[in-house]
Amino acid sequence: MEGTSLGSGGDKQLVCTLCGQPFLFTVGEQEFYRQRGFLHEPKKCKPCRDREKQSGNRKRSENPASQSFEVVCSTCQKTTRVPFRPIPGKPVYCRDCYLQIKRNQ
Ligand SMILES: [Zn+2]
Ligand SMILES: [Zn+2]
């Protein structure tokens, strides 16, 4: 299959570079690509593109905030979050109290 210019009319059959399956680059999609100014044909079939999109979303949702733990400050009883798992029986301090203690040391 030679000639990569868009708009030669008709659906085009392309081969996905990811899964090796043939897929259709329809006239509608070609039009869409042309409107967007894309000069190249898609290299991946739709299922593969969707899968990549999904895995991209999953990566983004894995933020470090999930690694923080809600604790109650031993000094002021304020609820706060710490980036480590609190040890039972050990005092935990909110940021303010922690800084206060550090300053008094
Ligand atoms: Zn594919
Ligand atoms: Zn506190």
UniProtKB/TrEMBL annotation:
It comes from the Bacteria. Pfam families: zf_Tbcl, zf_Tbcl_2. Residues 44-62 have a biased composition (Basic and acidic residues). Residues 67-100 form the CxxC-x17-CxxC domain. Residues 11-55 form the Probable zinc-binding domain. Residues 44-67 are annotated as: Disordered. NCBIfam families: cxxc_cxxc_Mbark (TIGR04272). This is Zinc-ribbon domain containing protein. It comes from Tectimicrobiota bacterium.
